[in-house]
């Protein structure tokens, strides 16, 4: 094909076969850019509450309260049915027959609900609540887990809920670490049995959590499972050791 050049040539370049392919695909790329992308809905304050929410209710029975507390956390499902589907906490309610602490409970739930609806990373709430200590002293839950206050247990409930919906992921303990803990626990119980000359069944009845009767509180997992082994404090629940 002959092309007549009517203007002065200022420069030139050789068109390669791969350049021709790129030029042919350019209209398709421009069309893809112009086509609307899938709108991903994120959590923010202006997000309206749906007619129905998915929720979970947890029971808290504390020796500091005469009646149990019932903590309900409702979640909103974002981008349902898509690859971006995500479940996020939207609101929290705490109910009880005990009306002595009604004011601060309502204030706490309203603030927490506002933080949930603001969006972003809300997992920091867990550590903030679990760090609250009662000046009158804390208490042990079933299983030997120490709770420094009722607010801290509310934080533990929120943490459990966030783990259930996938916002918080628990680090998996390796098989080797589990085996080491089981070995240390068996060795400690064997040594304790020889010293006190009691049967294993008696030892189990002395501690509801199944840990040795002489165990103390672990600073890492807040469980009464810290024992002295080979001159070093070792936790039989999480494997924590002061000697490294």
Q: What does this molecule look like?
A:
- This protein has helices spanning 17-34, 102-118, 124-130, 150-165, 175-196, 200-206; strands at 54-60, 69-78, 86-95, 139-140, 146-147, 216-217, 224-229, 232-235.
- With 244 residues, the chain is an alpha+beta fold.
- The strands form three sheets. It has a three-stranded antiparallel beta sheet with strand order 1-2-3.
- The chain is flat.
In short:
The chain is built from six helices and eight strands.
Question: Helical residue percent?
Answer: 25-40%
Which regions have little confidence, pLDDT < 50, spanning 5+ residues? 198-208
Q: Based on the structure, what is the oligomeric state of the protein chains?
A: single chain
Shape verdict: flat
Q: Can you count the beta strands? A: 8
Could you tell me the strand content as a percent range?
15-25%
Strand order of the largest sheet: 1-2-3
- Nearest-integer average pLDDT: 78
Order of helices and strands: HEEEHHEEHHHEEE
Sheet with most strands: 3 strands, antiparallel
Radius of gyration, CA atoms, in whole angstroms: 30 Å
User: Total helix count?
Assistant: 6
- Through-space gap between termini: 81 Å
**Overall SS class:** alpha+beta
